[in-house]
Design a protein that fits this description.
The complex is a heterodimer of chains A (204) and B (327). Chain A has 204 residues and is α+β, with helices and mostly antiparallel strands. Chain A is 27% helix and 12% strand. Chain A is built from six helices and five strands, in the order H-E-E-H-E-E-E-H-H-H-H. In chain A, strand 3 (98-101) and strand 4 (104-107) form a beta hairpin. Classes of the chains: A alpha+beta (204), B alpha+beta (327). Bound molecules: flavin-adenine dinucleotide, iron/sulfur cluster and FE2/S2 (inorganic) cluster (2 copies).
Chain lengths: 204, 327
Amino acid sequence: MAKKDDSPDGLKLDRRNFFKTTGLAGLAESIAAPAEAAAQSTPAAVGPGDVPVRLNVNGRQIDLMIEPRVTLLDALRTRANLTGNKKGCDRGACGACTMIVDGRPVYSCSTLAIEVQGKQIRNVDGLATGDRLHPVQQAFCEKDALMCGFCTPGFIMASVALLEKNPNATPEQIKKGLDGNICRCGTFSRIFEAVSSVKGGQRG
Amino acid sequence: MKAFAYINPANEKEAVAALSPQVEQSMPLGGGQDLLARMKDYVTQPERLVNVKTALESTVTPVGGGLRIGAAMKMADVAEHPEILRMYPAISAAAIEVGTPQIRNQATVGGNLNQRPRCWYYRNEEFVCFKKGGDRCFSPQGENQFHAILGAGPSFIVHPSSLAVPMLAYGATFRLAGPKGERLVPAANYFTLPRQSLRMENVLAPDELLTHVILPAPGNVKSGHYEVRYKASHDWPIAFATVLIAMNGSVVKEAKVVMGAVAPVPWRSAEAEQALVGKSITEATAAAAAEAAMKNARPLSQNGYKVDVAKTAVKRAILRAAGIQTA
Ligand SMILES: Cc1cc2nc3c(=O)[nH]c(=O)nc-3n(C[C@H](O)[C@H](O)[C@H](O)COP(=O)(O)OP(=O)(O)OC[C@H]3O[C@@H](n4cnc5c(N)ncnc54)[C@H](O)[C@@H]3O)c2cc1C
Ligand code: SF4
Ligand code: FES
Ligand code: FES
């Protein structure tokens, strides 16, 4: 493979960024630059260098300085300390990165962070209220719907989106609604049981 | 992924102005479900992305007994749109099977129709084939189990768009906007064979956008759509078909048979259509039409099975159109 002159995913994980990632430099909000160049009549191109990107994640505003090529997944995982959703394939083929954007499940690995400004973004980190799990999370625990757990955050977000749209989803709707997620450990039947078990209005 | 500049134009004019006549220099970004993966793999390395989701329409408008669909409409919305389902059920049937729920929530009509081939040599940076400006095709001597069985050479891709097939069957026209204004291109003339244009799969210029799909009134036709897939999701069909039939009493007056995943373009089969006209539809006439559809098939070393799969798709789409229960 030819060596690329650019760093993977545009994230330049140097020491400073590493501390940001791990949260040692404080919350991501503190590295925000004021949103400049707001409304212009003719749109100007931004980037390829860092640009201000403002995201609303789990009801919280997060201001970042990132390149346009940074995906929503990488922005949250490596810049905002929201590491709940995992990176499986990074190609829209596994579902581990599933987040809910304006009510719909999407692959955050295949979504540019710069494109979801102004939208309501939810990842798995925002589901529980303190120690109280979301009913879907609770059901996954009760039905033991995981083995290694790598696919779980994505499956849970896809399930939450499905049940918010169809609170009494039929078995067929559950199968079709979750077929964008893959479990390498093969826990599908238990995941199906877990999601089926939260039927009937008892979801938070 | 190589770093790029990003621009979010407010309307069609600005979006067109932000493109470049140079190939893959400044590129339209729809839902990104195809383009971003290609960029991550360094198959496509634009300097600039032009978001077209703000600039282009994402709605359905009735026009002259038909419908006009904005290119920024999401696949999930196409799949659930009641008027599309009522008037063009084969389009709904194709849309609902595209990829996964997450992909359908992001992918746009314009992006689906203009997505690039899935040939694994094309998708791998190291294989510089015709599609990447190289001087050969790796598939005839290589792994070709999903490649074309009709109309191929010198490239053997199959066209990857599920939407293109029913759209062509329903007689869709694509509206394109470019620096010199708009042009209307029938779907039947939009997609091009490798022997016509080796590098690209259609007539769109690098500084043009596909802005709308215009569907004529469907008329009194029955339609059937059938996809054969190896996996129920996360994958493209091995072969599929859309069939439209207009009846004259109990016999077929007119038929349209368009196949997907068998050729470098959505492939209309005049042979299968002729085999149906004047016949009533039974298992036997449907099977005979499917045979006719594959008469000119030229499989490669590993994809002979696709001939049978395509026959099954055509036969079952015909039976579905006629309202006959199929597997
Ligand atoms: C696991 C998986 C399974 C899939 N299965 C299927 C399947 O079964 N059937 C199927 O059809 N597809 C399938 N796909 C492909 C997917 O549907 C396409 O990638 C998607 O529809 C592309 O739409 P987009 O809006 O995301 O396009 P983008 O990725 O944004 O763009 C695709 C291409 O079109 C160009 N483009 C975008 N919009 C326009 C426009 N308005 N005018 C001109 N050019 C434009 C872009 O420059 C780019 O080159 C699958 C994908 C994955 C990852
Ligand atoms: S089939 Fe087409 S895309 Fe695949 S290697 Fe041959 S020329 Fe390239
Ligand atoms: S990491 Fe996004 S789909 Fe696999
Ligand atoms: S629990 Fe291991 S991938 Fe699903």
